[in-house]
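[agent] plan:
  1. take the single chain provided in the ticket
  2. run structure prediction with default settings
  3. attach structure tokens to the ticket
  4. add a short note for the reviewer (M.T.)
[agent] executing step 1
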Amino acid sequence: MPPIEIGPSGLPAARAVGAVDARSVRSAAGAKDSQASPAASTDTVAVERSAARDPGAAPVDAERVAQIRKAIESGNYPVIPMRVADAMIAAGMLLRSGQ
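[agent] step 2 finished; step 3 output follows
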């Protein structure tokens, strides 16, 4: 049975897809170093970022933003204290739930 690695939170660490076991890298590097000269051990590995994790541009309705901005500047934007309070409470609950 393979050993369970414990993460910083004290829970078993989740393995990412395509994750590399550090022990296998060290043993492979040790085998390579024993065959190569000391000057060749300074090889570096280039890591590229995946485009799959790029969230892209934020979905913003520019027309609606312009309408709200114009209403605020002219003093016609309705501020309803109960709606503001409800939105603040909802945001706080979302932050505490971790979603």
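[agent] step 4 note for reviewer: DSSP finds three helices and no strands in the chain.
[agent] ticket updated
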